[in-house]
Design a protein that fits this description.
The chain is of the alpha+beta class. It has a single domain, classed as Fe-S cluster assembly (FSCA) (GMP Synthetase, Chain A, domain 3, 2-Layer Sandwich). 22% of the residues lie in helices and 24% in strands. It has 2 helices and 5 strands, in the order αββββαβ. Strands 3-4-5 form a 3-stranded mixed sheet, covered by helices on one side. Strands 1-2 form a two-stranded antiparallel sheet.
């Protein structure tokens, strides 16, 4: 069995599984991931939502945490919701 090296690219790939149900896009391509920190087997992510009042906010945060915990090499994951800077549509990744 191959194991994935735990790095920022692997973390972002895992987070691409998390879809914002209101928009139908993953949280990485939407530009909702602000920061990734890896300390051994612990991953911390700071992310935002499209608005502070997003009704799916806790569900999206929980989905991100589950995606991280399912990643090889991750023993602990913390997903913090932040709202500074505020998200805007220009933060979305543009198709290649």
């Amino acid at each position: 069995m191959m194991t994935t090296q735990l790095n920022e690219a692997a973390v972002l790939d895992a987070l691409r599984q998390v879809i914002d149900p209101e928009v139908g896009m993953n949280v990485v391509d939407m530009g909702l991931i602000y920061h990734v920190a890896i300390e051994g087997a612990r991953v911390r992510v700071a992310m935002t939502l499209t608005s502070p009042g997003c009704p799916m906010g806790e569900s999206i945060r929980d989905g991100a945490q589950v995606a991280l915990l399912n990643l090889d090499g991750v023993a602990d994951a913390e997903v913090e919701l932040v709202f500074d800077p505020p998200w805007h549509p220009a933060m979305m990744l543009q198709p290649a």
